[in-house]
Amino acid sequence: MRIVSFLPSATEMVCALGLGDQLVGVTHECDYPPEVQTKPIVVSAVLPIEKMTQREIDEAVSQRLRDGQSLYQVDENLLRDLEPDIIITQDLCQVCAPSGNELSQAVKVLAKKPEILWMTPKSIAGIEDNIRALGQATGLQHRAEELIAGGRARIEAIKARVRDLSARPRAFCMEWLDPIYCSGHWVPELVKIAGGIDPLGREGSDSVRIPWSDVLKLDPEVLVVIPCGFHIDKVIQQTPKLTEYEGWQDMTAVRDNRVYAVDANSYFARPGPRVVDGAELLAHLLHPDMFSWNGPATAYQRVELRALWPAR
Prior knowledge:
Elements: E1 3-5, H1 8-16, E2 23-27, E3 41-45, H2 54-66, E4 72-74, H3 76-82, E5 86-89, H4 100-107, E6 115-118, H5 124-138, H6 141-162, E7 171-174, E8 176-177, E9 180-181, E10 184-185, H7 187-193, E11 202-203, H8 212-218, E12 222-225, H9 232-238, H10 252-255, E13 259-262, H11 264-267, H12 275-286, E14 300-302
Parallel strand pairs: 1-2, 1-5, 2-3, 5-6, 7-12, 10-11, 12-13
Antiparallel strand pairs: 3-4, 8-9, 13-14
Helix pairs in contact: 5-6, 6-12
């Protein structure tokens, strides 16, 4: 079986099921597990986002979408040569990966039509359904159910420990800094699992722009910076932007030194098996006295915004 993934999250699922050897094509963003970085790249980005600011990225993406232009380029010649039996794609977010239009065009060049797996999760249950569908398509239903059960057990362990909390901290998961976006889809659900509340998050719905005044009104006790598509080093580079917003120093999270830059790609932006790690990481950030973090030290970094405190 020859599998081509148009999604970093799908690439992670394929490898988690032990199918890495059957993965013959990936996207330019697929970087986990590390061995997939040697796979042929079928999908690449149109915009040079590594050279752009968040504001420039947002404006360029919005303009291309308004013009009906794609954000991704599919190497149709390579795809033809790879002769995939299965292509995994999505139709959830035009910004995150190729969607239906790009795939329809690419499949036209293939002599043998592959099976298409659509992954459009909006919740943890949706992510589980995607793992299950991949298991069924590859004859690994039992392994898929084991992977799902393992993740559920870890989530239930968190829920059990936070169930009797007398208070849950107000959190704000910021999915973009300029302009500001709240979190969406499965992220607010992760916050709830971890024993917090994110009133600005849109559980099961798209992340959207919100005014800075909404953040100030919420006055989060914990601010988690998780810009979609960014690993920890890029997130850290963006965090000084927060100090450009009026009143930032008055937020409880800033005063209590509870602002965190997090590896968004690894734990939040990709709807794959590692969202369970994301729940455990949030539990540690929200309740450090109750939960330790046993994952990579590079998963998060406390942002010392107080060092940038304006002179009074």
